[in-house]
Specification:
Layout (H helix, E strand, L loop, with lengths): L4 H16 L21 H7 L2 H9 L17 E5 L5 E4 L3 E2 L7 E2 L7 E8 L2 E8 L5 E6 L9 E4 L4 E5 L3
Antiparallel strand pairs: 1-2, 1-9, 3-4, 4-8, 5-6, 6-7, 7-8
């Protein structure tokens, strides 16, 4: 399927309008069929997380680009899941993809899971925390060596743990 610039802009405008209105295209229980080590009721997740974290981690939303405080984080350390505190990415694999979201070329071993999904007719690979199932972002095949992958993550879905001095 070929997208024209106009079609891409129109679908982006529709998505932006829906997101601004608070509409999520996926169910809050998107991973309900999967079993994760950390599970909570929807009410418990809402109580634990900020509204922005809940939207991304539990409803598979996306934060606005260039808004994450983790985008410019350059210290040595580890990026962890904001939902369950599992370590996800080492700062050694972080790079500036110029996309507006924190990007990494590789997650920590067994820290994430992936699944294909389609929204607006575009098939993407979503990334979730392997411990709690929280949505983190998407992975693309346009990253740097050595993996060639770009894990484009929502900063609001993560916390940063500086390395011990």
């Amino acid at each position: 399927m070929t997208f024209t610039r106009r079609a891409l802009l129109q679908s982006s405008a529709i998505a932006a309008t829906a997101a601004a209105a608070g509409y999520s295209f996926l169910k809050p229980d998107a991973h309900a069929a999967a079993t994760f080590e950390v599970t909570r009721s929807d009410a418990e997740w809402k109580k634990q997380l900020t509204p922005a974290q809940y939207d991304v981690l539990r409803r598979e939303g996306t934060e606005r680009p260039f808004t994450s405080k983790l985008l410019d984080e350059k210290r040595a350390g580890t990026f962890a899941c904001a939902g369950c505190e599992q370590d996800l990415f080492s700062s050694r694999t972080k790079y500036d993809s110029k996309t507006g979201w924190p990007s990494f070329w590789e997650p920590l071993e067994k820290a994430t899971g992936t699944e294909k999904n389609s929204t607006f007719g575009i098939t993407r690979t979503s990334v979730h925390c392997s411990r709690c199932g929280g949505h983190l972002g998407h992975v693309f095949n346009d990253g740097p060596k050595p993996t060639g992958l770009r894990y484009c993550m929502n900063g609001v879905a993560m916390t940063f743990k500086p390395a011990a001095a």
